[in-house]
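Two quick folds needed for the group meeting slides. Do the first one here.
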Amino acid sequence: MEQIEGLYKGQQLPLQRDVEVISIPFGKPVTLTEDSVVSVMQAKGSSVSIAFEGRLFLVEGANLDALGLEAMPRPSLSEDASEDEIEQFVWDQLRTCYDPEIPVNIVDLGLVYGCRIERLLSGERIVTIRMTLTAPGCGMGEVIAADARNKILGAPQISRVHVETVFDPPWSREMMSEEARLELGMF
């Protein structure tokens, strides 16, 4: 059984408070109410996938207290972070994003093709992420994009995040890191 900070896959628990979650696969925010009984599906990175009334949802780390755990602070950067620190922050946040159905982060899974940070004349920064999905029909793209946006926007230096989903080149298992292939048994 998979465990993270006291949660087990399949564990059922009541929500401790109303909580905003991301619907899977649509990527839209939804509020689940206090005392709703949810089942833990996957607990990876700083997010937990849960099931409620036959639907799946993603609970971000900042809302883990709704599951009876200590909430994780939103990721952030100091105001005077260097350009290199900002770029490292973006990649670090992407490594905390998981497809709710696969226990490997999207960077090691080979889904992220590139990341560009542009600084506008106003001083604002816009992050553009080029990523793919494991298959063109995969419905998790909006959920992964919403998760990445929410985490990256924790940096005060970043004002917008655009996630562009592309299918050229098509994803293949060779794009995964060696660790990801080992984790998924795909050698």
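Then this one, please, same format:
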Amino acid sequence: MNTSEVAKLLGVSASTIQRWVKQLELPMERNERGHYHFNNKDIELLKTIQTQIQNGTLLQEIVPVKEKKPRKGLVKAPENNAELERLYMIVTELEAKVNSKADSVASYQLLQHRREIEELQGQVRELTNQVKSLQSQLFEANKSSLPDKPLVLDKGKIKRKKKNIVSTWFGFLG
């Protein structure tokens, strides 16, 4: 029986059955998926535990069963070492091929990046030369547009607006 069937039989939840098995370290068999599989002897043990709990015994006070049942094996042992060695050699060859391919891909990528860097360096050189050329043209343009004589105001006099006396006294208000 599986966990849910045993739980229905005893009138408890499946999680209660799982908790009893784990906390009391009961030696229950498991199927290939890791689910508990109960036989008649296991069910009788669980009924005994249920009776003890109903009589007031705490789960921590119940003495766990120390007898361990052998677990069913899931993986078959290889029938001969020759087959195992052959599989090991195949895996080793595949690893070597994967490593070789990874190395060649990395080398290709490095070469591509190197080409891209060289192209960018060429573009930077071209832009630097263009900036220098534009700077020299700007310097020449500024040099030729400067006037020979300094600018002078109309006979050195600046017309200023006269302030009246009232605005002088109350100038701090405005």
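Slide caption for protein two: The longest strand covers residues 29-30.
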